[in-house]
Amino acid sequence: MSKGRFGIHGGQYIPETLMNAVNELEQAYDRCKDDEDFNRELTQLLNEYAGRPSRLYFARKMTEDLGGAKIYLKREDLNHTGAHKINNVLGQVLLAKKMGKTRVIAETGAGQHGVATATAAALFGMECEIFMGREDTKRQALNVYKMRLLGAKVNAVDSGTATLKDAVNEAMREWTKRIDDTHYVLGSVMGPHPFPTIVRDFQAVISKEIKQQIMEKEGKLPDAVVACVGGGSNAIGAFYHFIGEPGVRLIGCEAAGRGADTFETAATIATGKLGIFHGMKSYFCQDEYGQIAPVYSISAGLDYPGIGPEHANLHDTGRAEYVPVTDDEAVEAFEYLSKTEGIIPAIESSHALAHVMKLAPTMDKDQIIVVNISGRGDKDCAAIARYRGEDISE
Amino acid sequence: MKISDAFKSRKAFVAFLTCGDPDLDVTEKLLVEMEKGGVDLIELGIPFSDPTAEGPVIQGANIRALSGGVTTDKIFDMVRSVRPKLKIPLAFMTYANVVFSYGIERFAKTCAEIGVGGVILPDVPFEEKHEFSDVFERYGVDFISLIAPTSEDRISLIAKEAKGFVYCVSSLGVTGTRSTITTDIGAMVAKVRESTDTPAAVGFGISTPQQAKDIAKKADGVIVGSAIVSLIGQYGENASQPVYTFVKSIRDALDEA
């Protein structure tokens, strides 16, 4: 029987070699998820080590400037290692430790998930290997250095487009080679069951906090929650506790690259079709024969040809909306938030901000938008400077 | 030309190549040479952009074939043309998305029409197989199951429903040549035989006549892929002779087993 379905999406489309490993992971997670000791330990790590809860900040100047809905920023960028990725990583590495694993591997796009995994591995005294597309190691050289500094081995992946999808391919290949002592810390709500569920549960802390914080500040739920979507982990984290609240619009912002009507795009919902890849059934950018398309975005973290199965289902049911945002729009939002609020957002999160800049003015002043600032933008400064024609050295 | 015919009279030699590497004309010629050299069943690889079960050798072949413009339809046409020249059964080996995007029904129907008796999808495990196998069964095409060194208690579950042959993956990791195979192949095959009469063939890492002979003593057949693909990569359109010679050396070793 197929497991881990979200509507028609999800499942476990992986080689037989890995089946007992994912079954073992599922059983371990089932034991731990409601275990008091596990949850106490995880909460302590999230609070004392990663700096949770993250702030929900009222962006007064941005709100006044745009002249519409009140805008709140969920500051995942303030977490240790600078992004939401640490939430999932601490959960998974703690789980791996309980399973008796001594080594972790992970894929990374922008490098945030790789840095978070290397960080947790250092903390837990585990061996760590990261797979990263060669192209991304160039775009995110600083993060490569950080991972090495933290004691991880970084493998640059040359196959395919040498970006995130190829890093996932290589991490999966590595996992089939060495399963006994190794846990694959998947970084997004994708891959075979149980990963989409595990990663979502560990990221759901974001919406749990937003709900509490907005009730304290405004006494009501937001009208919209907006987040960027690659695989979709920060978005599902920000959406999860609002899925059952029909009054809250959920909006995922995909990377359209040079435009959803061009070939240089990574907007999966806008341009993809149903398929099976990386262990799951979902929507993928692909050609008529099912060959996975080489996707493009200025953001290494959103440069992925698929989307997590739960998002695919939220799209099917109409519960969430997915909109494409171009490189240009994201770069403008990156600069806008820096100048307006003194906060430099990740280029990934800037995709969500760009949509908020369009959405807020169309809404009433008593309405509320929460946008998830999934990461900080330090890592992107050199690339954005280059995008604007300025060559700076880090 | 059913898949099981390959296992009728001798230790079966299952050979793999990637269709369209370096082009489909060469593939067509190689298929004839392979049968001549003593192959009993050919796995026709339909290239995929992201072959996650493959090592560098077959990955390279996939890239070469796709950059040459090969498509699923062009491969079907090639098989239509070569099928009358071959007596042995054929199976397709590809990835779930290639079949799914073509339409499972349309793919299965075409297999039946052009005389391909089986299909192998390494990213479709037992739990997900019915979406595919139920459709293939209606067209008389065997959906071939794989077992791995990590399968343990899953072996009997999988073997009980196996069609054509049981593809026993010899080693952890991806496809590619290995100097030694450490899995207890004898024990693996014995476990398969407890649950089914369907023949068991062993693949992943077999590249020399000696390895083929050793493995064949413990199984009903051996599967050789990367070693052949590597020769095709090296010799390109002139691969017929080297592939024939290599295939013949494996055949001779199997006949001694």
Brief overview, please?
The complex is a heterodimer of chains A (394) and B (257). Chain A has 394 residues and is of the alpha/beta class. Helix content of chain A is 44%, strand content 19%.
Please tag this protein with its features:
heterodimer, A: about 400 residues, alpha/beta, 4-stranded antiparallel beta sheet, 16 helices, 14 strands, about 45% helix, B: about 260 residues, TIM Barrel, 11 helices, about 15% strand, globular
Report on this model:
The complex is a heterodimer of chains A (394) and B (257). In chain A, helix 4 runs parallel beside helix 5, helix 9 packs across helix 11 and helix 10 (205-218) packs across helix 11. In chain A, strand 9, helix 11 and strand 10 (249-257) form a beta-alpha-beta unit. With 394 residues, chain A is α/β, with parallel strands linked by helices. In chain A, the strands form three sheets. In chain A, strands 3-4-14-9-10-13 form a six-stranded mixed sheet, with helices on both faces. Chain A is 44% helix and 19% strand. The mean pLDDT of chain A is 96. Chain A has helices at 16-33, 36-49, 60-66, 85-98, 112-124, 134-139, 141-149, 164-177, 195-203, 205-218, 233-239, 268-271, 309-317, 327-341, 347-359, 381-387; strands spanning 5-6, 9-13, 56-58, 70-75, 103-108, 127-133, 153-157, 182-184, 224-229, 249-257, 273-277, 279-284, 320-326, 368-373. With 257 residues, chain B is an alpha/beta fold. Chain B has a single domain (10-146, 207-251), classed as TIM Barrel (Alpha-Beta Barrel), CATH 3.20.20.70. Helices cover 45% and strands 14% of the residues of chain B. Chain B contains eleven helices and nine strands. Chain B has helices spanning 24-36, 56-67, 72-82, 96-102, 104-114, 130-138, 154-160, 185-195, 209-216, 226-235, 240-256, and strands at residues 12-18, 41-45, 90-93, 118-120, 142-143, 145-147, 166-169, 200-203, 221-224. Chain B has a nine-stranded parallel sheet. In chain B, helix 6 links the parallel strand 4 (118-120) and strand 5 (142-143). In chain B, helix 7 (154-160) crosses helix 8. Chain B is globular, with a radius of gyration of 17 Å. The two termini of chain B are 25 Å apart. Chain A binds chain B through residues 1-3, 11-21, 159-160, 165-166, 169, 172-173, 176-179, 273-279, 284, 286, 288-292, and chain B through 48-50, 52-53, 55, 59, 66, 71-73, 96-102, 122-128, 131, 146-152, 154, 158, 169, 172-174.
